[in-house]
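Input/output pair, single chain:
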Amino acid sequence: MFGRKKKKPLHPHIDTLIGANTHITGDINFTGGLRIDGHISGNVMAADDEHSTLVLSTEGSIKGKIKVANVVINGTVTGPIQAQEYLELQEKAKVYGDVQYGALEIKLGACVEGKMIHQNKPNAENAQQAEKMITLLPSAAEKQPASTKNDAV
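Output:
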C-alpha cells in the first residue's frame, strides 16, 4: 500500500549474546545474529554482508564503527553506522555519528546526531525507472533571449 516495499526478514535467530555485565575492548567480527546487552569499545563488523543482524538493547552501548547488513538499535552508539540493508532506531536509541542505510525505520523518541545518508542500490527496479525518464526541453518562451533596456530605446 502507498508504494511501500515489504521489509526483508532479519536473521531469524541470535547466534551470539553479549551479556549486560560484559565490557569488551576490541573489534568484534561475526556472522549470523548478534545481540549486545553489554558495552563494546571497538568496531562491530559482520562478515556476511546480506544475512547478518545486530541488535543493541536498551542497556547496551557501542563506541566504534558498525558495519552490518541489518541493525536494530535501542541503546547508545558513538560512531558511524553502515547498515547496507535495514536500520531500525527504536524509542531509546541514541546515535552520535553518521548513519548510512538501505531502508530506515525510526520510532518516536530515537535521536541521531549526525548525517543520515541513504544508500541507493543499483537494481533492476532503478534501471527500469531510469529507462522511463524523459528529458524535458525548454519551452519556446524560455529559448528567446531576454530583452534589455537598449532594445526599448
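The helical segments are 124-132, 140-143, 149-152. The mean pLDDT is 83.
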